Amino acid sequence: FNLFFASLMKIKENTVLLEKEIKEFSALLDKNNINAAYKIYGFSLLYSLPENERINYSKSLGFELTDIEHYNLGVKAVSEGNLKEAVKEFKQAVKLNPGHLGSYYNLGLAYEELGEKTKAGEFFNEYINLYEKISQSKNSFLDEVFIPFQASEKEFIKEAKNRLKS
What we know:
Layout: H1 2-30, H2 34-41, H3 51-60, H4 67-79, H5 83-96, H6 101-113, H7 117-135, H8 140-165
Helix pairs in contact: 1-2, 4-5, 4-6, 5-6, 6-7, 7-8
């Protein structure tokens, strides 16, 4: 029990230290003191920041965002009611990763909400076609990654097909 308690205390100390270092790193970036931030911390702490901060700093530093980051920005834009921004972000996610299923589906939803039924249908069809192509693949890596999500994805496919009918 004492060893367990000591381990918990060490974890807490390390967490407090990490939080302190992250705050100092963020403060340097906020002051636009990029060279000092890099010299002291490198950019490894960048990935310890909350996602919104990390994305904002990455953009300000001129780093390219990933498809996942663009997807997440699209989801955020939808939650804020900014569908045109969401479309822009989902399209960028697809541009970086043409196999990003969720972006196609969300583009369909966004265009549908914007009243652009033809574009919505195009993206729902892209989503369905890509899903079928991936699900028929005989790639063992894809099977390990894809099969656990296949059941929930089938519900989205059903929903996309229903939206195409209306």
